Amino acid sequence: MKQSPPPFTAGPATWTSSKPPLLRFLKACHAEFTSETGGAVADYIPELGKADPAHFGISLATLDGHVYEVGDTQVPFTIQSMSKPFVFALALDTLGAARVESVIGVEPSGDPFNSIRLNAENHPFNPMVNAGAISCSGLIHEAKGDAAFEYIRQALGRFAGRELDVDDAVYASESATGDRNRAIGYLLRTNAVIKENVAAVLEVYFRQCAILVTARDIAVMAATLANRGINPVTGEQVMTPYAISRTLSVMTSSGMYDYAGEWIYRIGIPAKSGVGGGILAALPARLGLGSYSPKLDKHGNSVRGIKVCEALSSHYDLHMLNRSDDARTSIIADYDIGNSPSRRVRRAQEQNILAAHHQDVRVIELVGTLSFSNVDYVSRQLAARPRPQLVIFDLRRVTAMTRAGARLLAEEFRELAAHHVTVVLSGIRRSSPDWKAIAEWTEGLTNIRNYYLLDAAIEWAEDQLVYRYGGAIDFFEATELSEQSLLAGLTDEELTDLASHASIRTYKTGEKIISAGDPAASLFFLRSGAVHVTLPDGVRLATLTAGMPFGEMALLEPQRSADVLADMAATAYEVSLSDFERFRKQHPRAGERIMRNLAQLLADRLILANAKLELLTSG
């Protein structure tokens, strides 16, 4: 008998300290960029100059409603120009695209945000510059009159998922120093873009810029843009997909003003900044990012916020034109081996260990495209339950893996390694591009194993549990008929008589013992070694070890339905059906007992098959 290793004990790192790799990345960005002191706080609006330049918050909202927060994410600041895309979307949904597009262009201007210049048709270049944004406010005022601002405030609140307030001091300061915007307003009135009272329209605009938000708010607002207008936290459809797609288009070309071309070329995520220090970025079908840091560069964009966006895009290769997937639902089944063990039939001692510790092996079957957001979701689902000892990721249904998904998955493997969790990959070959993508970032990790077949991966994981909890697996130890499950309940006299009808057969590794289609002329009791049962097309049905019967369906069927091959050198007792019938006539009680045992064996197999089917069809 082999000596067993000591039972498994947890390492020094505690599972409760585990963090999703994306959160660790955001924390690293915050720590690195906090030391950035470049730029200056906007002071052309006096109240904005009072902002604390040390404030720095980063928030990221996923499309399943999870929000990451690092740093000063709850510090309120005024939304300023970040209100523009949302009011543009509101105007499109309120007045219709034809009305909005008849007075506001969609071309980048190449000018600063507060430029007093119109296009060749004497219309604003786009809704992201002040002229276009004031025009949007004018359109809302045209439709809603005195209720225009409240209409806008409520809409922005739906994007954020909560009621938003106004900073009256900033509003008053902005109104008192807003002569340049007044000049723009009267230029628009002269060209019939604004048909309402200019002063009233500008009061709406000044107030919408003074709405208070946090980094968390703008992350959720950005995620709502990325989610086709559905707030991922509240589930509300805030705006139509049409308005959202047009808004994201203009954000792509003009959201960062005279830095827009450089931004989309290098970072590739639709974004909008505000002179209050905020930047929001919306990556369609992926995420929303919000950052707050008051110091601005010469373009009026947050210095630290720019660096966060650059780092996120570069690290995970998130440029929107590099997209190759659009799936979000990635987990088809998530279970432990209690309901879905391997096809290997085990001895009682092994069964007892696995029954007591089945929760230590987690199996997650993935499907579709493994993208950045999918892998992040998987990592959080994994962390939501107690730490396992082994995690099997089955990738056989994965059709594609983005570079961002592969990198985040590799970072999850590193996180698991830190907590002494072994990762087993199945359904992927080492020669595949997906494996190579993962391997690029997993060099040096020793906690990763690979089995192409899921059942082989589960079987290996089961073996590890047996070893870790004091069991032993000895394929070469010979068993007697008294240890056979199909013969449970027979007396010594009955077993001795049955043994007299049996012949001991020896098989070499790989030797075929039974062939599908042959007449069923005998049944076998495995004495040592291991065999596997497969269908003619090669699908493995079971792995059997010493103490297990095979060919037992000969008692019910005249023809073999599966192949049986030796996994290793094996010995078995063979009893012909004619001898078995003579034994049953001599010992009718034993014959009845064997048929009951067979019925129980078949029932157990059916229960297991139903449990596996339930795993795939539930939810």
From TrEMBL:
Q: How does it assemble?
A: Homotetramer.
Q: What is this protein called?
A: Glutaminase
Q: Which NCBIfam families match?
A: Gln_ase
For the protein in the UniProt heading, the enzyme class is: hydrolase
* One example GO MF annotation: glutaminase activity
Which SUPFAM superfamilies does UniProt cross-reference here?
beta-lactamase/transpeptidase-like, cAMP-binding domain-like, SpoIIaa-like
Q: What family does this belong to? A: Belongs to the glutaminase family.
EC number(s) from the headed UniProt entry? 3.5.1.2
